Input
Amino acid sequence: MSVKNRLLLLKNLLYFTAIARTGSITQAAAQNGIKAANLSRMMKEFEQALGCSLFHRKSTGVELTREGYLVLEEAKRLEDELEELEYYAVSRASTANHVDLYLPSNLRLMDLEKFYKAYPGIQIDILTDVGSFDVGVFYEEPFLPKDFIITQHQIKQNNVGQMIWVAYRDRHVAAVAVYDFIVSRLT
Output
């Protein structure tokens, strides 16, 4: 099925649930800002595409057929998933410019000012408690949930090399590249 056809199916399902909730094509059309005649035509085409009647049309409104109830169950499930997807997208967008960075207490970041110049829209909170973080630096390979990506890095400062592990959630890869910092061990 093409994207255009899927969008049309989704649109029809959403209109269908509006009609089922109100019991009226006229009320559902008014709620969705379209003409009742257009919505009625769309639903007839939708019923033809599905090969079944979804409504019993009456002078006082509409009632769902048995098939209509079955389609409504799936349409409600899909509508719930769409709401969840919308919530997920909005919540991710609201945290897209914020990063919680975990550092052990004996690590520090140099040149943080350089980072803020390079990424002016990003806010970083540095955490010293493992708790919940987006990016973390460790001396030993950490055991973390599956949604983290762990990379191993060799850092050198004053001819002294040290291995660190950087763990991050994939949504912050572009936002914070830990290697943009100079990470050094405090003695």
About this structure: The longest helix spans residues 66-95. Residues 172-176, 179-187 have pLDDT under 50 and may be disordered. The two ends are 62 Å apart (CA to CA). The chain is about 45% helix and 25% strand.
